[in-house]
Predict the structure.
Amino acid sequence: MKAHEVPYGTCSLVELVPSDAVSFDSSVALRREIAILFSESTGQSLLRAGPTAVSVIGRDKQAQAILARLRDRNLPRLGWVTATTPKSGPIEWIQVQVHEFPVQYSWPGDIDVGVDEKVVDVIRQKLGKSISATEVIEWLTERFVLIDQESGSKVFISGSPTPESDHRRPFRMHGKGYAIDVQKTPEDKLLLTRLVEARRGASAEERRPIVPVQGNVRFCDSTIAGAFRGAARSQLDQLVEQAGSYLNVWREYNKLERDSVFRRARTLGWLSYSEAKRQADGRWRFRIQDSKQLDTALNLLRGAEDVELEAASQPPRELQDSSDSSSSGLATEGATTRSPRAFVGSFVGGDSGRYLDVLPTGDLDDREPPIPGVLFMSMSGDRRRLERRERAQASIALAECPMPQLGLLLEGSAVPERRRKTETALSAVVREVFGGDPTPRQIEAIRVALNTPDIALIQGPPGTGKTKTIAALQARLAELGEDGDLAGQTLLTSYQHDAVENAAARTLVFGLPAIKVGRKHGRTDDGDGFDRWRRERVDGIRADLARLPERPVSEVLRKVRSMSAAYHASRFSPTETTKMVRDIEDIARPYLSPSLLDRLLAIRQELSGKQDGGLTFQSDDRDLLLKAIRGLRVDAISFGDDGPRNATRVLHRLELLGACDGDALRLLTVASDWDADGEPAFLPELKALQEALLDRFSEPVAVGGPSRHGDLEEILPEIVNELFSRARESSGGEDAVLYEYLFDLENDVDAVRSAVRDYTVVLAATCQQAVGFQMSALKGERSVFANVIVDEAARANPLDLFIPMALAERRIILVGDHRQLPHILEPDVEGQLELSVSEETRLALRRSLFQRLFESMRQREAVDGIKRTVTLDVQYRMHPMLGGFVSDTFYAPYGEAFRSETPADQFEHALPGYQLHVAAWVDVPLSAGKEQGGQSKRRPAEGRWIAKELKSLATVRPDLSFGVISFYAGQVDGILAELEPLGIAEQLPDGSFRVADAWRETRGMDGHLKERIRVGTVDAFQGKEFDVVFLSMTRSNDLPITDNRSLRRKFGHLMLENRLCVAMSRQQRLLIVVGDSGMLRGEVAEQSLAGLVAFRKLCEGRHGCIVSA
């Protein structure tokens, strides 16, 4: 606060002139704080401005009298310069405003006033934006603390606490436009308790004098984050250095994974090629110079999964350098970008001693490799992934994240409580999301998530409505509007893109969808959720309009707007333009003003008087170029989606036409090569280039072509606006508003998308892309979210989970199920762990962070009484008999049983051969053929039966969805191969199979599109549901069991309870297990394969059946 902003005290205005000089020096300036002092011996008046003091007298008798009164009263004073004369040149006299106060106190030492979460919340709401506690303190300091030129700082209070009192009574501090109440806590600390707008007091208590207090008054962060950050850092420093520290264990794991990446890349090294040619199917064929080196590389690549190769003129520094550059840590992201014009693709095959084939990734399909060059394993993606993990882990371990107690929570240590207001779970918007009243446990889940001081965990067994609970929670959080600024307050995240999109598809807050930021590598379709929302909105508005009677003016508005949009989007010939003007005149005449009609008539007469001459320009190449230019991404967010790919297309088109000059070539090359997580500095230059190219290639060429009419372009929007006004003014103008909204949704898609991005409450991203370039462009360099919600949290690697958790300020809500699939460790790293760490550490690494926190938070609940965990207990997905089987088999033994409430008649399927059954066991005995293969098993006998039965059932019921699950990728490939001759699957150029397009989607009985057939491993099915599920057991052998190792060799993945839980809980109406029932016999099998044994018994009852293959 500045002296001239102080409104308190008794004010006097006095005009002063220097007594010993002609003018004041430059230290006396307008609005400068000054002090008026009086000599006790002589009564001389002094004016001090900073270190300078000057003797002054009143400019006239009145001013001298005011000075005398100030001297005689001798009260505490504050002054400032209100005017200087003259305004330019040496200052001859000044006007000063003096504030007098009845008393002034002086507080010794530092006076710290704490600011906690409640006050931060209030100030955020007052300001209408989300700011950090540090920014709140800066705001309070600027408005309440006057930096005194004599002795530090000064504040203004009422309530008169003196240095001698115990300050137990609250007092009020007054500032610029606001006042705050302060009181002492039981811990003898000052705490800000309330913020109010400044006003004249009505009661005697409120009208008590406001007096200054001299002292070093400071606002300090007393939120749990601020008060705890220093202590947490010290405690974490000790914990993290201990061998058993959870954060330390995962830090070391990340180092091992980083070393593994470098080791794999160095093992392959680089392959020099002399020739590279694009093949008809899109792959590139590289002619390798060293045939022996190629043979070695092919052996390595064929045994690896998801290997990306990069082509460049030279190998990267890390591969040329013999030292282990990975040992010193990760390089910065800016230093690890791909080489210029980088070509990256997946290995898809090769021929010994001759060539190697690479298929470019989807977003780099316009890139061409340098010739000659080298091929090597691409490391840029791994570098970025590992560095993001490292930064998140460090921010948690150093208590630098917005929630500094997070590290101690992860370590299982005690943390202090936060002072929070209790929120209720139920509201009208929550009931709307659920379509009625949620279950008591769903209500509890929302209540726990709203009121957690830090972390809440919601366990969602199969089909218990966790996705709908997430949607309701997001809506309730937005409804509470804690921060005032709701845009982007919640991050919805998960471990992979499919899981994020699945959760985001159910999100609708204030009518806006969750916008997904970032996309899957190589994917070019729109996956941010906006387009799906837009299409649904268009369909809904059209349905609403169909129910409304269309009034004549609304129909005219719709037709004229369509003609106007077509004219602006296309190049009309003069004949077409004349016809359009005539049509508009004919249908809009009754609703247009005379002035508009006169202008429209003049345009029509002018067009009719001209002959439609000239040739029409028909250059397809030029049209394609213009389309590519318009597709250039020139803002940070859209450039992060597909900017480099679109820049490459423009460059390619310009080069084909021979129209690429030096500046355009340079800029487009830089844009097409961009692959960093920062905002490109060249975007303004790229926007200017886009405009220049459009001007250049949109100009009519010499051969002519229809040009637009300037007057017509001007009048068309005026006609549309006048018709819209007439439609709104007429009775029942609802349809006009709907037509306006529909028009924007269909014709101004980019503007609508931009508006939704700016205002949506929920942003969605994978754990990794929560800190990517696109998120930074949208949220700022340091993305911080009030709420972070993680779906399928048990599946995320803890290091990836640290990334979004380190962004949360208020609450972290983890939603998942530790009885289902856990995260997967890197095989190479897991192999090293078997040799280098203890069994306890290996178990900690294999156990999901969700499970660790679920168990530790339950223990914490017993200590502090704060509920942080909830298990949903009503399933809606499957037939009650199947739901009971899953609950009894996989959840009840751990005290997590759930019930089924949806009536059984809603799960009828009427499939031939299964009648009213919901469970079927298809016995394929050992005599039909053993399992085959090494690590990834397959069993052709099961695959043939499943393929044939799937074709039969899917043909009978095309409205049902079917899932085919196996525990082994080899069996998945075998089943897809069996489906190929049946027309259900197709083979891709790389030799793999996928479900054919004709069998991918269907419309269910509710009319909505859904996936029709999916064939995959268990990992591809978590979070999915299908009407009918086939489960291929695959394992069938006569191996003896002598010890634990031979037990694992015999049963393999069938022994993993969490994988079996997922596999047997995806169905809604019917589960068909296909396998060798002989594998289930014996006491050992009953213990090791309890879930399969229980299902076999279920099939023997009245709800199941046994089928012989």
In short: The longest strand covers residues 105-115.
